[in-house]
Specification:
single chain; alpha+beta; outer membrane lipoprotein receptor (LolB), chain A; 23% helix; globular; disordered N terminus
């Protein structure tokens, strides 16, 4: 599914930085950590635009994201197709259409699901110890905080050229640009971000 590729690369983003920029980068990451520590729930909408080589027009999708600490996530595409997945603890399911076609998984038994879940929760919890070995990170702008990430391992570099994330003043990502090594480019714009409003259990069922 489209969302699986997105989560594999989006959510781990700390590592070495350019010489001479460590102080500024550390300050920016400290600011983000302070902001995200207070986030208990997050709900937002997103618009995803994917430019594919040989196609004249980008493919555009829309959807929503909901998160509740410590480990509940719901990612949903609402148009032009309906699909998504839910994680709640170590278990979850992928779905299509009206959620009647569900494919359950357990993160400990499904390597891809485990990778997605681990990276997503590392991002939401700002777990730098877990994520610092995966990417080189560069501070592009201090206000708004904008980071460029370069994958370090050959597994990521084979499909991902670079990743850029811009954050809003609450510590939530507002734009993500994913440049694939093969030339494709995906841009996600997040909007209508609501923090720390109760998210019902039904959103993760």
């Amino acid at each position: 599914m489209r969302l699986l590729l997105f989560f594999v690369f989006l959510l781990l983003f700390a590592g070495p930085c350019r010489a001479g920029e460590a102080g500024d980068l550390d300050k920016a990451l400290a600011r983000l950590k302070n902001m995200t520590e207070n986030i208990r729930t997050l709900s937002c909408s997103f618009r995803q635009s994917t430019d594919i080589p040989l196609f004249s027009e980008p493919a555009v999708s829309e959807g929503s994201l909901r998160f509740r600490k410590p480990d509940a996530v719901a990612w949903e595409y609402s148009s032009p197709m309906r699909e998504g997945f839910v994680l709640n603890g170590g278990r979850g399911f992928r779905w299509e259409d009206d959620k009647s076609r569900r494919k359950p998984f357990v993160t400990g038994e499904d390597p891809m699901a485990g990778l997605i879940a681990g990276q997503l929760l590392a991002w939401m919890d700002f777990d730098r110890a877990r994520i610092e070995s995966r990417y080189d990170i560069f501070l592009e702008n201090e206000s708004p905080i904008t980071l460029t990430l370069l994958p370090r391992g050959p597994d990521l570099r084979s499909v991902l050229g670079s990743l850029q994330i811009s954050f809003d003043g609450q510590g939530a990502a507002r734009r993500v640009i994913l440049n694939e090594s093969g030339g494709g480019r995906t841009t996600l714009d997040f909007s209508a971000v609501i923090l720390n409003r109760p998210v019902p259990d039904a959103e993760f069922d």
